[in-house]
Amino acid sequence: MSVWSRIVELAARAFDPEADPPEFGEECAPSPNDVGFTAAVIGLAAKMAKADGEATESELRATQQVFRPPPGEEVAFRRAFMLAQQTILGFDSYARQIGRKYRARPCLLEDVLDGLFHIAAADGRVDEAELAYLEQVSGLFGFSEMEFRRIKATNLGPDADDPYAVLGLLPGADMQEVRHAWRRLAAENHPDRMTQRGAPQEFVEIAREKTAAINAAYARIREQLSVNA
Question: What does the domain layout of the chain look like in residue ranges?
Fold first, then answer.
C-alpha cells in the first residue's frame, strides 16, 4: 500500500482539525512512508490552494508535480488532497509540528515552503492572501522575517528589483558579506546536494530554479558594486 493510499485510509483522523495530529517518524528526513509528515504537508498544500478563496485544477496539478505520487496512485492522491480541502481550518498545528520536529533541519522546512510557493504560483499569480498564509507558515516553522524575505525572493523574484533580498541581505552589504551569503546559499540549495540533505527527490527542479536565482542575484550585485567602486 502506497503512502497516498494509507493517507486516504487514515483521512478521517489525518484531516480532522479536532483530532490529534498524526505521529511523525523518528528520522530527521521524512521517509517515503512517513504518513504523518506527508499528511501534514498535504494539509498545508490544500489550505495554500484555498487561501485565495478557491482551489483550482492547476493548483492540484502543481501539488502533484511537487509530490509526484507513484504511477497508479494518482486517484488516491487526488482523494487525499480533496479530503484535506474539506476541513482547511486547524492546519496551523501541522505547521507547528513540522517546525518543532525539524527545527534542526531548516533546509527541509525551506523545501516545504518552496513547494507551497510553487502551488501558490500555479494559477499565474500570488495574491496577498496567499502571501499572508505563506508568511504565517514560515513563522510557524521558525523562520525570521529576513529569512522569509529571502525565500520569497528566490521563488517570486526580489521586491523593488532588489537582488540583495535573494541572498538574505540588506542593501548596502559589502562584497565580502555578499560573497559569503552567495556561497552558503548556493551550497545549501544546489540540486546535487538535495539527496545528501535528505530532501525529497521531487524538489530537485525547484532547487535548480532557486540556484539560478541565487547566482543571478550575486552576479547583479557584483556588477553593481564594480560600477560604483
Answer: 1-143, 158-229
